[in-house]
Design a protein that fits this description.
The protein is of the alpha+beta class. The protein has two domains: about 5-100 and about 175-180, Glycoprotein, Type 4 Pilin (2-Layer Sandwich), CATH 3.30.700; about 105-175, Hypothetical protein ph0010, domain 2 (Dna Ligase, domain 1). Helix content is about 30%, strand content about 25%. The protein is built from five helices and eight strands. The protein has helices spanning about 5-20, 65-75, 85-90, 110-115, 145-155; strands at about 40-45, 50-55, 95-100, 105, 125-130, 130-135, 170-175, 175-180. Strands 2-1-3-8 form a four-stranded antiparallel sheet, covered by helices on one side. It is globular. The two termini are about 30 Å apart.
């Protein structure tokens, strides 16, 4: 299936899942076999170019179609940073679906070594340390292009000090295929 078709299906699933929860539509049954394969995804909602919700999975734990629908509902109604999406916002919200590759280890004994191995604009990064964890999709490089600042913000997101480093910090990276619904982010 061409990427454009794949993207249209995934974004439609996300939009239908939100519409269904709002009581204004249903999620269509789909027969595409690739939707049944386990995969991890993130669904990002923006309104007037501002983040309105973003929830996802970093590891494949359920079929891709279910993962996208579940993450779309979570981004719209359960992102703790935002109030639930309203029906009036639904018509204006832009939807982006990111399908994640499997994570691979990024070994680094120091922050400088980690920063030097990152590929800005390409790598999504997942950080784990002593029960703390956070991730940034590759899209975050657009607002944090410096690898050192990217890592500092990621540690802050994980509720660690921004300038903290410990050799026990575990980093993994992944790439994404991202698809938008073509709606302007205003």
């Amino acid at each position: 299936m061409p990427d454009g078709d794949r993207g249209r299906v995934l974004v439609a699933i996300a939009r239908e899942a939100i519409a269904e929860r709002l009581g204004v539509g249903l999620v269509r049954a789909r027969e595409e076999p690739w939707l049944a394969a386990p995969a991890a995804s993130f669904v990002t909602l923006t309104l007037d170019e501002m983040l309105r919700g973003c929830i996802g999975s970093v590891d494949a734990r359920r079929p891709l179609g279910e993962d996208v629908a579940g993450n779309a509902r979570a981004a719209a109604f359960h992102d703790p940073r935002f109030e639930p999406l309203t029906l009036s916002e639904f018509g204006e919200v832009a939807i982006e679906v990111s399908v994640l590759s499997p994570r691979t280890p990024l070994a680094a004994a120091s922050e400088a070594e980690a920063a030097g191995r990152l590929r800005p604009g390409v790598d999504g990064v997942y950080l784990e340390y002593a029960g703390h964890a956070a991730t940034f999709l590759p899209q975050v490089w657009e607002s944090l292009p410096d690898p050192v600042e990217f890592l500092a913000a990621l540690r802050h997101k994980a509720r660690l000090p921004s300038r903290f480093w410990d050799p026990a910090i575990r980093l993994t990276r992944y790439t994404v295929e991202k698809y938008g619904d073509g709606r302007p982010a205003h």
